[in-house]
Amino acid sequence: MKKLMLATAASALLVAAPAAKADTVNVGILLGFTGPIESITPTMAAAAELAFSEVNESGLLLDGMTINAVRADSTCTDAAAATSAAERLITTDEVAAIVGADCSGASIAVANNVAIPNGVVMVSPSSTSPALTTIDDDGYFFRTAPSDARQGQVVADIVWERGIETVAVTYTNNDYGRGLSEAFIAAFEEYGGTVVINAAHEDGRADYSAEVGALSAAGADDLVVFGYVDQGGRGIIQASIDIDAFQNFVLADGMFGQSLIDAIGSELYGRAFGTVPGSDLEGADVFLSLAEEAGFDGSSSFAGESYDAAALVALAMQAAGSTDRTAIRDAMFSVANEPGEEIMPGELAKALEILANGGEVNYVGATGVELIGPGEAAGRYRIYEVDDGAFQTIEFR
Amino acid sequence: MEDILNALVVLANFVIIPSLAYGAQLALGALGVTLIYAVLRFANFAHGDLMAFGTMTVILLTWFFQAQGIGLGPLPTALLALPFGIIAAVLLAMGTDRVVYRFYRKKRSAPVTFVIASVGVMFIYNALTRIFIGTSDIRFEDGERFIIRAGEFREWTGLAEGLALRSSQVHTLVIAVVVVIALFWFLQKTRTGKAMRAYSDNEDLALLSGINPGRVVLITWVIAAALATIAGTLYGLDKSFRPFNYFMLLLPIFASAVVGGIGQPFGAIAGGFIVAFSEVSVTYAYRRFLSHIMPEEWMPDGLVQLLSTDYKFAVSFIILVLVLLVRPNGIFKGRVI
A90-129: per-residue pLDDT in tens? Predict the structure, then answer.
């Protein structure tokens, strides 16, 4: 009896295993379903799964293979939990690639401890830390969210283009502020600009006139503020205007908020400009209507990036012609960048067909994906100026 | 000549005017602390949060008046709400005294018991304020913000440097002068004021001469709470209101009271300005000031700043420690704390 059962089980395995291998492939979705960003991760996961179901419905991936999404919890903050969740995905579920992780800390831990040693592609939709640009990732780590360092570069571009050559910089005293100011200063000095002072400010103070006194003593007419709109950043600008210390103010995404204009009023008009991540692309609208049909909010944070991350994984598999992990890695750049036919959200079937026929695609997607450097999105930024009581959009770049 | 004027304007704009306003706010706070110490003989740790509570009431009423369309024209609406805020703070202080401090007075507890009790009271006030108004940053100044704007000043005078004078800074100084004159008149000339001073100098003799101790304690709380609310409101108008910052203000306020000599009203005022001028002048970067009066080739590369602005609070600490080491009873020979 025992032998019979073993034999049955063995033959069942023999029959079942190759069949499963042939027509489904597992892809992990490693996001913080519990923890500080649990409010946005369900939408991010839904967006990624939307891309996979689009691929599955077309039936064109690798001769009718279907993608099976396996969710796992990164917790966002607990690196050990994220690592063990990723280990389970890679060893037990044998995923071909991972969409995730979400928070930069979790992404760094998973990449270093599990993904890179096992040679599994990770595509993070939301890690923005500049530290991920320089990790030794063997080419396995990608992201569809731009690095904060990129914003520093864009801010330097617009400051320099306005003919401003000397600035003072103040940043909120945390990783965000410091990273952004370092990136800005590196880019600005590259152009030949001068940063006369780079000083941190603490949030939550009642009075910033002493900080402004020090900043203005350095002798620049214009001030770059990498702070928060409801915190020290606003206090610095208010104090600067009160004592007329600076002419223009350069802002980044942390300072983008209507409360800044409401608090300071008309004295800021025409004197403040800056950047915030944003997109005017056709793909963004297409994605919004796709998301609405699927029953989730496409404008939620990082939803578009999640869709794009999942779509890139599927297209890379098709371009590689296999679900081999290293082959996926090698195909990522070719499907994300030029040359090739531009692919919008909802056009994944078309892309799969082109790739199957040996053609090339340039995936644009919901967020205008363009992989640069070590495999991260270039990102698009809205350039704005404060005037007439609102942030007026000048251009996108 | 013009260079010297420019240098003076820079100094006035960045050091002198801000320090005067800040010093007046500290002085009003320190007066409250020092009066409590003189009469009740303990260092009241809850004073900063009493300031926050009074200011919170003023802010809530300011919002109410604004919603009703009642205002003072160019003056901030908060000044209209100030008397009501004072009443609320006085009631709170009197209630606290009745529930907490009277118990220890009857038992004739040691001063340190009062101090620790006041720390407990501080946490309760702290929570009260946060429950009603939250922890975030609130600006409640309205009316005309400036008396002199930097840009206009430059146009009038033709100087390269601008000088800004905000209404809140002038209000602070005017109100502080009026309040201090009224307080000293009260302490020197009125019967109740004299009774307070007598009680402060020698409790037993005061009791023998028929002074009612309950009344003296009551009046002291009324004055301290009124001073706390005025100081808190002026500070909030000039800078911004955030409960945590009022808690942090306790340190420079205590430093001011101790420097001047605790228990000495004159000392509290002098101490307030000493602490304010030290904080601002030690953390100011003098580069711009020097650029007007020094030949260009002598100009240093740095900012000529003694301490980074991050260390502002360290200045009060240093003053506090130095005074306690070198002259424990302060400039005006107050009591030893």
Answer: 999 999 999 988 888 889 999 999 999 999 999 999 888 8
- From chain B, the residues in CB contact with A244 under 8 A are 149-151, 162, 164
CA distance A380 to A103: 20
Burial status of residue A152 (CB atoms within 10 A of its CB: 0-12, 13-18, 19 or more): buried
Interface of B with A (CB under 8 A): 13-15, 18, 22, 136-137, 139, 146, 149-151, 162, 164, 166, 235, 238-242, 244-245, 279-280, 283-289, 291, 303-305, 308-310, 312
The minimum CA-CA distance between A212 and chain B, rounded to whole Å, is 9
Indicate the helix (H) or strand (E) that contains A196: strand A194-201
Whether A2-146+281-367 shares its CATH topology with A150-278+381-396 is answered: yes
* Domain A2-146+281-367 is found in CATH 3.40.50.2300: yes
**Domain residue spans in chain A?**
2-146+281-367, 150-278+381-396
Closest to A344 measured CA to CA, from A370, A368, A312: A368
- Of A77, A107, A53, A45, nearest to A300 (Cα)? A45
Q: Which CATH class is domain A150-278+381-396?
A: alpha beta
Note whether B284 contacts A214, CB cutoff 8 Å: yes
Question: How confident is the model over B35-47, as pLDDT tens digits?
Answer: 999 999 999 999 9
Tell me the pLDDT tens digit for each residue of B197-242. 999 988 889 889 889 999 999 999 999 999 999 999 999 999 889 9
What's the complex ipTM?
0.81
Question: Please, what are the domains in chain B?
Answer: 2-326 (1.10.3470)
